[in-house]
Amino acid sequence: MTSKHVMVWDSCLNYIRQNINDRKFKTWFEPIKPIKLENDILTIQVPNKFFYEWLEEHYIGLLRNCIISELGTKARLEYLILIDNKNQFSNSTEKQTKQIESKDIKNPFVIPGIKKVKIDSNLNAKYTFDKFIEGDSNRLARSAGKAIANAPGATAFNPLFVYGGVGIGKTHLIHAIGNEIVKAHPENNVLYITTDRFTNQIINAIQKNTIADLVSYYQHVDTLILDDVQFLSGRAKTQEILFNLFNRLHQNGKQIILTSDRAPIDLDKMEDRLISRFKWGLSADIQPPGFETRMAIIKDKLEGEIEQVPQEVLEYVCHNVVDNIRELEGVMISLIAQATLNLKEIDIDLARNIINKYVVSSNKEVALEKIKKLVADHFKVTVEKMQSSTRKREVVIARQLSMYLAKAFTNKSLKSIGDDFGGKDHSTVIYSLRAVKDMMDTDEGFKNQVVEIERKVQMSIGSGY
Known about the structure:
This protein is of the alpha/beta class. It has four domains: about 5-105, GMP Synthetase, Chain A, domain 3 (2-Layer Sandwich), CATH 3.30.300.180; about 130-285, P-loop containing nucleotide triphosphate hydrolases (Rossmann fold); about 290-360, Orthogonal Bundle (Helicase, Ruva Protein, domain 3), CATH 1.10.8.60; about 360-465, DnaA protein, C-terminal DNA-binding domain (Chromosomal Replication Initiator Protein Dnaa, Chain: A, Orthogonal Bundle), CATH 1.10.1750. The protein is about 55% helix and about 10% strand. It contains 20 helices and nine strands. The protein has helices spanning about 5-15, 20-30, 50-60, 60-70, 140-150, 170-185, 195-210, 210-220, 235-250, 270-280, 290-300, 310-320, 325-340, 350-360, 360-380, 385, 395-410, 415-420, 425-440, 445-465; strands at about 35-40, 40-45, 75-85, 95-100, 160-165, 190-195, 225, 255-260, 280-285. It has a five-stranded parallel sheet, with helices on both faces. Strand 7 (about 225), helix 9 and strand 8 form a beta-alpha-beta unit. Helix 15 crosses helix 20 (about 445-465) and helix 19 (about 425-440) packs across helix 20. The model is unreliable at about 85-115 and about 360-365 (pLDDT under 50).
């Protein structure tokens, strides 16, 4: 029968194997032998003192996580170091184990050399939960954010991966989480950073040979908020460093919050192992808010000024600007400003002129119909057939390409795109996007067709075609 200390260590090895590469596992963990387990203290034997010191410096978070996972929060780890006692056995290679006294070693669950410092959070103080209007489109993400703010790093939502289109509240939410953490846990070092700035830090560190210093700096962070991770696409070195940093923070119980314009599974040119980490916690999408939520957001944003806007104008604007909260706010501010500066009455005609002139998303909504028409004409099929369930090859390709271009040229969610093509579900749209990418990778002629249609779409949007 297998001893309990062996079973516990085997479970730990399974956990460790999933978090480091094979070479490091074979070098640093396969030589370790479990010796005994008493009173939640697991004793392991290591080949020498250098080996022990390397484990303590580089893998202490990993060891801590797996031991606590197996034995509970009172678990401890002790080392037995295998030494060559040459003074006693001068003509022998026989070795014996020696337990290192506690005064000779550091607590193996304390990372050495790290002094707590205060970090500038880069948070925008105006973004709070009080100003984040809850609705069906964002309830899950907001609820998870509140739970994290109460207990950063201690919930199942680590990491929290928030995704959705442009201008629908992702940045507001993550700043609100950060601000709430700072308020409730002032000892917690919170850092908000964009992916572009993070990448620039890495480039500078590589040029100056200071990567170790950069990693050391990030070890002071208790809550890391990384915005727009889709911009990591194709940046192999940045992804590698983020992967290692992610592991180190997560293993040490630090909170990680990420945002993207798409779900982890839809990220392009991203390492599978990094995408896997993104999916460890909770992925919560934020959809464009419904009509009632849009009305509530505008009334909250404009406060006293909203009284200047007739109800029917407010409803008209909220009905016609649906996918982007920033543009919704911009239209209302422009509406009030135009009326005030030009002594005009706020009415639907004025609202219509402002929407047509300033709202980018309105052009993008029109773009979807143009995309359908351009693709249908190119493949000599009808738009009606593309929106039907027919499986004819030319229709299927036209439908898939239209979905692909809709994702590229509009702010629509995958669900909305599916709805626009005969009620196709989310998974069908994802499959279509991948199918088009695969065809472009393997068929140069098809790729050229796509490039030509993209050019026509861009020209039609720009010209108001």
